Sequence to fold (301 residues):
Amino acid sequence: MKQLRRAFTLIELLVVIAIIAILAAILFPVFAQAKIAAKGTVVLSSAKQIGLAQLMYATDNDDVFSPIVAFNDQWILNTFVILQQPYMKSIGLIMDPLGPAKITDNNFVLTSQWGMPPAADATTIRDAAPDAFQMGWRWPQLSWFTNGERWHFDGIAGANKEPGTWIWPSTYYRGGGSLSTTAIARPSEQVMIAQANHPDFNWGLGCVPDNWFRYWADAPFNLYGDNNMICAPSARVRAAGIEAGIIPVSTDRATITQLPTGSNTFVAADGSAKVKGWRQLMSKRTERGGRITLDHFWPKE
Fold:
């Protein structure tokens, strides 16, 4: 006697497929967010390790932070993360999973996923523009951000070169040593190393530092190639494109009025790693000595 077997009908199959599609549509964004959150955790951990390497470097060098850049006579610019490698022993540690995954033989691209703030006295920029290390004095794009005020800022790192190297004229650096760890007035606030699109936020290698909106730079100096990039720490956490401070180079900079809305991962001078909204990082300020100074970028007082 034959036993009849009931098969799924076409309607039943379509209903199952529809349920799977609905579940996928609901869950895929959740998975994507979880992946981004995991990358953010990796970045925070890496930042902590990079910061500890910097402090170990200082311990072995008279308590002085490393320079941002060290030039040699082969036209090679070794940035601070290359100088710190003996203490990190890992190139992978400096690769930011929230940024473009680039490793090339050009140290600019390799190391520009993290930046270090240069000391104004280590650059020649203020010779031509005495007000350069201020926000709010030059560009209308920043007038609404600073409420018409001038915000002063500075950094902790100098520059270095090997004897006989003549590369200074091709940069905006004059040399000068970095600050010591004991010279930092508020080490828990002062930015030591931060996510960036350029190893010195482009404050000394081609961009006047008050260009805190977007600035175009040559591809080797720019993590995002020929795009406009924020001339400051990046805003890659929980943001992309214009919200992270990156827009196509074809955009007319005169029309840009939006500053980044993302966040930045940074290491303070005491070695603590933090994530802070870009606008908060760049606007927390206090009046000191009759000047309005940025708390995260004012190490001396």
About this structure: Residues 13-297 form one domain.
